[in-house]
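User: Quick sanity check before I run a bigger batch. Here is a single chain. Can you write out its predicted 3D structure?
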Amino acid sequence: MGIYSVTVPRVSNGLRSQLILGNLNQTAAELLRLQNQLSSGRRVQSPSDDPFDATVAGQLQSFLEQKERFEKNIQDAMGVLSMADSALGQAGDLVARMKEIGLEEIGVTATSETRRAAAAVIDEILSEMVNLGNTEFVGRHIFAGRDTLSAPFENVAAGVYFAGDTGTVEVSIDYSSTSSTSVDAAAAFGAVSSQVRGTADLDPAITADTLLADLNRGAGVKPGAITISDGVNVSTVDLSGARTVGDVIAAINAGTPPATTISINAAGDGFRINAPGGNLTVENTLGGSTAADLGIYCDVPAGPVLVGQDTDSVLTAFTPTAAISGIDWLSGLSISNGDVSTTIDFTGCTTMQEVLNRINSASLMVEARINDAGNGIDVVSRLSGAGLFIGENGGTTAEDLGIRSMSIGTQMSSLNEGRGVTTVSGDDITITLKDGTAFGVDLSSAQTIGDVITAINTAPGNPGTLAAALAVTGNGIELTDTSGGAGDLGVSRANQSDAAADLGLLASTPGAVLTGTDVNPIVADGVFSHLLGLRDALLADDDTAISLYTGKLEDDLPRILETRASIGARQQRMETVKDRISSETIELQSMLSDRIDLDYSTAIVRYSTLQASFEASLQTAGSLLQMSLINFLR
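Assistant: Done. Predicted structure follows.
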């Protein structure tokens, strides 16, 4: 508050009035500011009140807002996880109940009627399991992966279809910490099948467009320089800016000794350096590894030609199909999943992404993807309760891609959903040719489908007119008889062995070719498949299958419990972070209060003083500025 004397002699009334009004206005403004502070409780209401404290307060407020967002994320995440834990708890109870029903129907008291009744109960429980899989939290499906707006599970004619994904939704729970709010349906329910894993290393050739980051199985090439010598001339080539194989070739050809050139080698998997008349060495510089990463490191003179090592280019969605040799792209392959079958034609595909798209867009409820190793493709089924079969379409496409579901390397123990093939001592099958010749085959030592084929073709009684091989179209073991007889070609049991049935060969045909059924379905190894399998086994009065699927339900319980344990661990971690953030929030609020909050006692004393001063000023002005008519007439 400014102080101006208004009692000085020989001061005009006009100046005196201005001084008094100025004092009054300044005091009134200070009173208003204090009134606002007292009503809001804030000392700093604008940056001009205290620029330094206002700046610090702004930073503290920003920290508090971030902490509030973290607390909100944690609260939402804990809600999702709590809901998931509850749903899985109910699912575990249902699975335990179904296991009890399966055990009851194995006993001697079980009848066809009790099994049909149990199958009806399973249908009801299956619907409830689907509902649990579609559990929502605030409008978002918690078992759907990243696609939380769509229900992940759907009942279809052939089984239960999983339309979600196995991705995760991450949320920030602190400045440098995130946590997943997703629950993996594949882990909890076994919603996708074990993969038809690509058994072939597709080993794509490199091209000028191949990224250096895709070499060495995705480990890439460390940027740096290399030194190339032809025995006389030495050049250092900086490759730190190279991004593709073409960049490497251009840089080396522009910077190497005279007449020395580099290109992609004949195998298409690395480089070739030519130095006519020279004696090549290629080394790293400054302790780098660029030359070694490119497969051309050679510190011992190699002569005029240096053929580099395989750079192990990784398979990507952008890999050209032309870069993968030895693939029959023309024949295509056949895929059957549940009650849907189709032939996939790869004609016109120029990249691996297009190959994957052809399979994924065929409405087969399967997903084809590049494997984790980056050297082949895998195919998984999203349909529980049905088998996935991948076979040939008259060529070798499925075998070349390594995704034929029943190949010569398929283990006997994996057939028939893991039940394998039952053999006996001595001959297991009897093959009768069209000309009436019959011979037995001992399969007791066979470990793979290839072993079965070999055993048939080399059986002592085989006259050489019967050849076994994998089917040319579809899948399964195919027998071709060239004996020329008029009878039927057939396979029957020997010594009461079940091997013929287990191999899908227990059949006969008037033709010269007998194609067995594919007995290696790829199924989703999860609760939905096992419930559907148990239901069908109960309806079929199949004691063996009832025991099998009851045992598989026993295996589902640990899967659910492990998922719940994982959820519990995440909840515990979030509780710890939440408690820490709450403590930090209290500390920040205290610091913010110290900067901007009002000291009420001091402010009230100040307000009272100004109020008294204001009233005194009004009284002084009233006594000093008394006007008369004479004042106006002067």
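DSSP finds 14 helices and 26 strands in the chain.

User: Great, the batch can go ahead then.
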